[in-house]
Amino acid sequence: MAIHPRFIDDPTLPGTGKVTRVFWNHDRSILAVPSAFPPLTQPPARAVYGGQQLRYRVALYRPPLSQPFAVFDDAEFPVKTVAFHPYLPVMLLGGGSYDGGYCFEGQLFLWDWNSSHVRDLGRVPEVAFSEISTDGNSARVTVRPWDESVAEKKGRDPFDMFFVIDLPRLFERRSFDDEIALQIDRQTPKTAQDLVNVPSKSADPTQ
User: Fold this and answer.
1) Which pLDDT score is estimated for 13?
2) If pLDDT is split at 50, 70 and 90, which confidence band does 11 have?
3) Local structure of 4: helix, strand or coil
4) What's the predicted TM-score (pTM) here?
5) What's the rounded mean pLDDT across residues 140-144?
6) Structural domain of residue 194, as residue ranges?
7) What are phi and psi of 110, to 5 degrees?
8) Is 149 part of any domain?
9) Which of 6, 29, 85, 173 measures 20 to 30 Å from 166, CA to CA?
10) By the 8 A CB rule, do 35 and 11 touch?
């Protein structure tokens, strides 16, 4: 399904701030649109939500309809990656940012857009990529190091260092803190070029 560029570029697209990325679901019937709200330039009604300042959002659309049917407003960092579950109304959202001095801070969530239930999957560094397996029971995320000390320890450039983390039993575990930390500690980090050759687990090869 093709989408007209103006659908994304239109500054009046309801439910978004500045669009940063777009992600299709597996059959291209749903479009996830992460965006950021510059706090000093957006009208107050769009920059504040539920008494809290809104910075980052993921809005879901069924093009060509331009009104979102669901929105995710729990992210504290920019959303970098969205992976749709192959058959449930659930997505895996990850993101984060460099704090400007030392740490790569991140977040990782499972979000059911029908029930609005959100599950925080635990402490995680900045998430660059995510995918859910074809059977829907596990996931894989690509993350940056916790901080620059990890790069020093492993002798790599912290801005070209990634770890591929497997998350088994995705719906059975409340948190993956220990799993993520253990895999980062044990792995030899990959570069961006290395990631080109990492096999995909996704049900959609375009994810």
Assistant:
1) 67
2) low
3) coil
4) 0.82
5) 95
6) 111-207
7) -105, 130
8) yes
9) 29
10) no
